[in-house]
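Q: I have 322 residues here and want to know how they pack in 3D. Can you give me a structure?
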Amino acid sequence: MQMRVLGKSGLTVSALGLGCMRMSFGDTPTDKQEMINLIHAAVDRGVTFFDTAEVYGPFTNEELVGEALEPFKGKVVVATKFGFKHDPVTGPHPTVGLDSRPEQIKRVAEASLKRLRVEAIDLFYQHRPDPNVPMEDVAGAVQDLIREGKVKHFGLSEASAEQIRRAHAVQPVTALQSEYSIWWRAIEENGVLATCEELGIGLVPYSPLGRGYLTGKIDENTTFAPNDIRSRNPRFTREAIRANRVVVELLERIGAEKGATPAQIALAWLLAQKPWIAPIPGSRKLERLEENLGALNVHLTAEDLRAIDYAMAQITVVGDRY
């Protein structure tokens, strides 16, 4: 397994991690033991970086990841997230809003530690910036947890360049999680990627395969369950799926030259952008996990990357990401 260091932090992770959200949250019920077996298979293949969050489930995903990875304590890096509000009447639910007050962050940390069955959270992200809580207060709360030995590294997710700088000035940010892929490259234009490079912050792209679209296995006849985020996503209308097929065709052409699948080309493209990028594609099937890991053996030259950039510049992707 190739390893990468997330920025200046010294946090070393496998070049490809594993996003665990859909193992117990979202569109299709899964068998818990099958998912535990899949996580173990990932460890067997060298994956050391696993991503979950309090709100996935809610809570059940952390419990799954905690149980699955307990035998590998100290040998893997587990990232989780705080930042959503919980309604005491209807029960924990992400849709009731954001809550990154310091007292809430500390409550979440205590609960996540128990569910993950660890003494310290390896990487603790703010899931989304909270407009009601200054970034300095968020960073200060996580700094307290780091001093107490309950958290090892501080992360942000979907933060702006300014928010990253403000947080980093209080407590160094180890990693930024953000959507980033061959067809969603906003962080190249809004200063976020440049800020990460300047400050020595690692980047952890989620949805690196465009929520499955860049695998080439989705067409206009694909249907999505009502609780699948793609069922209400502008990029997954029939019209958008048909219009964006040109992106998949590009990946297929390059894949044919490299002996790789479209998904492997999409991941290889991300890995080639910066040495401090560690994508976290999600998977619930062993064959998909193995296909994704195969991207580590795909080498894209500088000429390949220029050709991809040129081709993508001629393509207008249809539909926003949310």
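Q: Anything worth noting?
A: The beta strands are 3-5, 12-14, 18-19, 49-51, 77-82, 121-126, 151-157, 173-179, 202-206. DSSP finds eleven helices and nine strands in the chain.
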